[in-house]
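Allow me, if you will, to draw on your knowledge of protein folds for a short while. I have a record of one protein: its chain in single-letter code and its fold written as discrete structure tokens. Kindly check, if you would, that the fold set down in the tokens agrees with what the sequence suggests. Thank you for your consideration; the sequence and its tokens are set out here:
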Amino acid sequence: QVQLAESGGGLVQAGGSLRLSCAASGRTLSSYIVGWFRQAPGKEREFVATISSNSWNGYNIRYADFVKGRFAISRDNAKNTVYLQMNTLKPEDTAVYYCAARDSSGYSSHVRDFGSWGQGTQVTVSS
């Protein structure tokens, strides 16, 4: 199973930007679909974005509606890393952000379909 580690979280003012990284070890991340999820205090973990495992015809990327136009997911297979660029951050984006890997084909935005998870990184957006 692939091991994942997130980094890049922190405290930022509303309107600011952060770039989260999800570094993999133990397995090559290129064969996995990778997703970003977030969990705010008292709320369920929710889908943010996902990127497919291959790029022969361009990566298949999906976003939750609440981040479209503000966040961008990308991957660097040579570095075994997936990124989440977050721009125009809002206080409601405050949460612990997790990356997760899925070794099955096909799009999914469900927590239950991702088998490997990182420990999470805290993102706090002040107003």
Q: What stands out?
A: The longest strand covers residues 18-25. The chain has no helices and eleven strands.
